[in-house]
Amino acid sequence: MAEKTGWLEKWHKGSVVSILEVKYHRVKVKKGPKKKGKTTKAQSFRDQDLYYVLDKKINLGQLTLTGNSVFSKNEIVEVELPLTKYNTRMRLLGKILKTTSFMELKRVVFRGDVHFAAVNKEDFDLIVAMENKGQVSAPKAPAPQTKQPPQKDDKFKVTFKRS
Question: Which CATH number fits domain 4-29+42-133: 2.120.10, 2.40.10, 3.90.550, 1.10.3210?
Answer without folding.
Answer: 2.40.10
